[in-house]
Design a protein that fits this description.
Keywords: Membrane, Transmembrane, Transmembrane helix
Protein name: Orphan protein
Oligomer: single chain
Number of domains: 2
Order of helices and strands: HEEEEHHEEEEEH
Low-confidence stretches: 169-175
Largest sheet: 9 strands, antiparallel
Helix content: 25-40%
Length: about 180
């Protein structure tokens, strides 16, 4: 069986179409980014913290050192009267902390956040907002900037939110 000129043209056209479909599918497979790791850093890699604010206290970079100031009158003395070494340790905790990402994204519409941390990073116009929620097996940290939910235990939550009182019991709901 011999093909004429029209037959070979059709073979070339159909083979080119098949190659286009093949490469188009391959393109989406190659460019579908890697799976999200189960453990992620709280802040972006290589980030530089300029200020860290809690509801009652603020830590800010002053030159090469850190200063903590009380934002409310009766703020606990835990941060704003501590040494620069403790402030540096807290900032380093935030920069290097790695937490597990929750598999199911939790809905926090009906529950108020226990506390909030606002982090100003160099090169960012808007601050990053982190809200802490109680979970059945510990705590959730909601990253409002990336809309991800991170899991943490009480000890880690106390290290990230040193001025928050974790010892008080929440009132039980009558549901």
């Amino acid at each position: 069986m011999q093909l004429g000129r029209k037959g070979w043209n059709n073979v070339v056209i159909f083979s080119m179409l098949l190659m286009i479909f093949f490469f188009n599918g391959l393109h989406t497979k190659l460019n579908s980014g890697p799976e999200q790791p189960r453990v992620q850093t709280v802040l972006p890699a290589q980030s530089f913290i300029l200020a860290l604010e809690f509801p009652d206290q603020k830590i800010e970079r002053i030159g090469t050192s850190w200063r903590a100031t009380a934002l409310v009158k009766n703020a606990p003395v835990s941060l704003w009267q501590t040494t620069t070494v403790n402030l540096v340790a807290l900032v380093n905790e935030w920069q290097s902390m790695q937490l597990s990402v929750a598999e199911k994204q939790q809905a926090f519409h009906n529950t108020p956040a226990l506390t909030v941390a606002t982090v100003w990073l160099a090169g960012e116009q808007l601050p990053w907002l982190y809200q802490l929620y109680r979970a059945p097996q510990g705590y959730y940290l909601l990253d409002k900037s990336n809309q991800r939910v991170l899991l943490l235990d009480q000890q880690t939550a106390q290290r990230l939110f040193p001025s928050f009182n974790f010892s008080h019991k929440e009132p039980k709901s009558n549901a």
